[in-house]
């Protein structure tokens, strides 16, 4: 990414900032099952409340997503429901270019898995 990216205030994060096609730029699995769809995904698509995961050498996996916020600090969580698993991830950082065409999204899952997603 060549454009300068700015941090988005996560307490005021509009849900539509998460919509679109994301490439998995980096991942740390920790205790996550390495064969799970989320651990194997190379790309994910968030449209409406539907989620599609692109897996290497396999058909796409699909499910649903939503953004939930904790009551105290209004931190955003990405709730994910797939056929074989349901989980949630704390959105720890979102950076966007001034024109909104490039973004980096960091997610920290309950299992300890961390994903960095890139959008351009």
Structure description:
- It is a single chain.
- With 120 residues, this protein is mostly beta strands.
- The chain has one helix and nine strands; from the N terminus they run E-E-H-E-E-E-E-E-E-E.
- The protein has one helix spanning 37-40, and strands spanning 5-7, 20-28, 43-47, 50-54, 61-69, 76-82, 86-97, 103-109, 114-119.
- The protein has an eight-stranded antiparallel β-barrel.
- The termini are close together.
Helical fraction equals under 10%
Would you identify the regions where 5 or more consecutive residues have pLDDT less than 50?
Answer: none
Spell out the helices and strands N to C. EEHEEEEEEE
Count the E strands: 9
Beta-strand portion reads over 45%
- The best one-word shape is globular
Cα-atom radius of gyration: 14 Å
Q: What are the key terms here?
A:
120 residues; mainly beta; eight-stranded antiparallel β-barrel; 1 helix; 9 strands
SSE inventory with pairings:
Elements (H helix, E strand, L loop, with lengths): L4 E3 L12 E9 L8 H4 L2 E5 L2 E5 L6 E9 L6 E7 L3 E12 L5 E7 L4 E6 L1
Antiparallel strand pairs: 1-7, 2-3, 2-9, 3-4, 4-5, 5-6, 6-7, 7-8, 8-9
Gist?
Helices cover 3% and strands 52% of the residues. The protein has one helix and nine strands. 22% of the residues are buried.
């Amino acid at each position: 990414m060549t454009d300068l990216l700015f941090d988005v205030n996560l307490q005021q994060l509009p849900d539509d900032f998460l919509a679109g096609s994301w490439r998995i730029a980096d991942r740390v699995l920790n205790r996550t099952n390495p064969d799970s769809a989320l651990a194997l995904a190379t790309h994910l698509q968030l449209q409406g409340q539907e989620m599609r995961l692109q897996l290497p050498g396999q058909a796409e996996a699909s499910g649903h997503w939503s953004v939930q916020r904790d009551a105290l600090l209004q931190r955003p969580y990405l709730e994910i429901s797939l056929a074989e698993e349901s989980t949630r991830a704390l959105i720890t950082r979102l950076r966007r270019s001034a024109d909104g065409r490039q973004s980096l999204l960091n997610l920290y899952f309950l299992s300890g898995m961390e994903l960095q997603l890139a959008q351009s």
